Amino acid sequence: MVDKLERFKRGLGGFFSFEVDEESPQRYDVLRRNLMILMVLVTFVPLLLMAGINYHEYRSVLQKEIVTPLRGLVNKTKHSFELFLAERVSAVSFIARAYPYEELADPQRLNRIFNVMKQEFTGFVDLGLIDANGVQVNYVGPYDLKGKDYSEQGWYHEVRVRGTYVSDVFMGYRRFPHLVIAVEQLTDRGDRWILRATIDTQRFHELIASMGLDPESDAFLVNREGVFQTPSRFYGGVLSQCPLPVPRVSYQADVIEAVDPNGRPVFVAYAHLVHPGFVLMVVKPRAQVLQAWTTLKSELLLLFFGGTALIFLVVYKLTGILVRKIREADERREAAFREMQHHHKLSSIGRLAAGVAHEINNPLAIINEKAGLMKDIIEHTPDFPKREKFLALVQAILQSVDRCRNITHRLLGFARRMDVQIEVLDLNDVIGEVLGFLEKEALYRNIDLRLQLAENLPRIASDRGQLQQVLLNILNNAFAAVDDGGIVSITTWDADLDRVAVSIQDNGHGMNQETLKHIFEPFFTTKKGYGTGLGLPITYGIVKKLGGCIEVQSEEGRGTTFTVYLPKKPPEFTKE
Amino acid sequence: MEGLRVLLVDDEVEFVSTLAERLEIRGMEVLVASDGEEALRRVQEEPLDVVVLDVRMPGLGGLDVLKRIKEMKPDLPVILLTGHSATRDGIEGMRLGAFDYLMKPLDIETLMAKMKEACAGR
């Protein structure tokens, strides 16, 4: 287990390590990926946490803000209902106690009492007196209900048990919802009688209307069995079954969440009335209740995603720039390193070459003198046998010595033991001098020499002989690269404040990238058989020494362009 | 120009002897020395018109020999032989009073011309 954990940690460390393999070609991609992951994590995680915390905080606060007034409203309305019913119950109770049975049994008397009651308390519809046998003996109201026998009805038994009774809403004979209040009293002789009043529930509607609910919300009374006591805006009329479950008993207003039959998530605020067993329910669609919250939430989400997008963008760009800079720095360092290596190689090879050249020069001098002496003898001896033959042989030896001498002198030249003689000169003149050597060949091979020499080219301080060497080397290569009838262009221009430039362009066979890498290395040659591989290294060395630089562009089959930049002021030449 | 007395100094015996012979064919009187000491002795003892001196020698080097010759006989012209026309040896030699310097391997006609030139001033 511990082992596994260790391995996981190591794997993770490896994944996020910035110690990437120096040689891996994907190292910059890996570096960038790791940087991005780290930066995104560092910025994104706190953002996510903050967004999450805010979300929950706002949600709970808002819910409280919305739910609390709803609860207050329900409580207040519930009290109104209780008060309304309690007043009616008290009124009936008062009459039952204040008047003896005999008085109430008098139709005129009852009629008068009823009229007073109607004036004092709204909502009473009728009033009836029921004797111990359950028969209505006296009645005031719009219907002829005198003599009706209630002894078989449920409410009659209930009032006999509990003393007072408030019925659920029912339709009764009159086809509109009303409820019954009944109060039991005893006569002096101990006979039971009941005073029964009917109230229409119009007043309930008024109470609900006074809540001032918006059109999307609903409020109604149900009894404990969930039967509507007042009509609902959305869920059914009076006495139909409420589709929402009756919440558990709570006399204090409470809020629960539910889903209504239309599938809307709703808040249900409710409170049970103490007496009778009604429940006041207010239904509000959740979406509406939390509208403010939803708005806030979408703003929060927008902010979050906007922020995230911004973070990603910035991280992406930033890591891009960063890794590019690193890459450039690496490449510069590598280039500098390569340059240094190149220099080192050149100078060590140069030293070696110089040593070899010196050593070879001595035997070469001996061969030269011996052959020279032979020649002298042949020339000074009349009648030398086979004179012509020997002279030709000696001449061949001397020519070979001459070739060897040229090679050793070039080697020594490559060793950069040459002295620089600075003079102020016109680069265009030097080009003219060099072309003097080559015009014959150009003519012979029908090579198109195109000169674009800048007029008023600033004069520069440099070494004429060495510049000639440089230009000759490059031009020789250009001539070797083109076929007969090819084009060689020479262009000079004032490159910048400190430098002038000359470019030599040919439309010859060009070089591939591999060759291009090696052209300044000594003894590298593509001229099989007759190249020394020293021309361009010497050229490179001279240009460096003159404080200039040299650039090559080449495309296989399209040609090559050498560009030499030379300083206008004399280079600070340091003697070896 | 005939009869110039020349001292050739070089540690390569084959080189000096052959060169001496060639110069003699061309009518010069040639003395040879194969090291610095011998060369100085010859300069001391013999009347000479010109000295041809190799810069690179074991023992007493060419430039040291040149200095001593100039101390002994400041008017005696010395032509140096160097590995390369533009080495510091050559330049240094010129500074020390050499008449000129020539590259090995030599062209005999050039050497002759230089020697004549050197002696013409005397």
UniProtKB/TrEMBL annotation, chain A:
Return the InterPro entries for the record: HATPase_C_sf, HATPase_dom, His_kinase_dom, HisK_dim/P_dom, HisK_dim/P_sf, Sig_transdc_His_kin-like_C
Transmembrane regions listed in the UniProt entry: 35-55, 300-323
Give the UniProt keywords, A-Z.
ATP-binding, Kinase, Membrane, Nucleotide-binding, Phosphoprotein, Transferase, Transmembrane, Transmembrane helix, Two-component regulatory system
Protein's UniProt keywords contain Transmembrane helix: yes
Which reactions is this enzyme annotated as catalysing?
Answer: ATP + protein L-histidine = ADP + protein N-phospho-L-histidine
Task: Specify the Histidine kinase domain's residue ranges.
Answer: 355-570
* SMART domains in UniProt: HATPase_c, HisKA
| GO MF entries | ATP binding; phosphorelay sensor kinase activity
Enzyme Commission code(s) on record:
2.7.13.3
Q: Which PANTHER family match?
A: C4-DICARBOXYLATE TRANSPORT SENSOR PROTEIN DCTB, SENSOR HISTIDINE KINASE
In Swiss-Prot or TrEMBL terms, this protein is called histidine kinase
Q: What organism, scientifically named, is this protein from?
A: Desulfacinum infernum DSM 9756
From TrEMBL, chain B:
Give the keywords, sorted.
DNA-binding, Phosphoprotein, Two-component regulatory system
Q: What Pfam families does the database record attribute to this sequence?
A: Response_reg (PF00072)
Ranges where the Response regulatory domain occurs: 5-119
Query: Which biological processes are named by the entry's GO terms?
Result: regulation of DNA-templated transcription
Spell out which residues are annotated as carrying 4-aspartylphosphate. D54
**What's any one GO cellular component for it?**
protein-DNA complex
Name listed for the protein in its UniProt record: Response regulator receiver domain-containing protein
Naturally occurring in which organism (per UniProt): Desulfacinum infernum DSM 9756
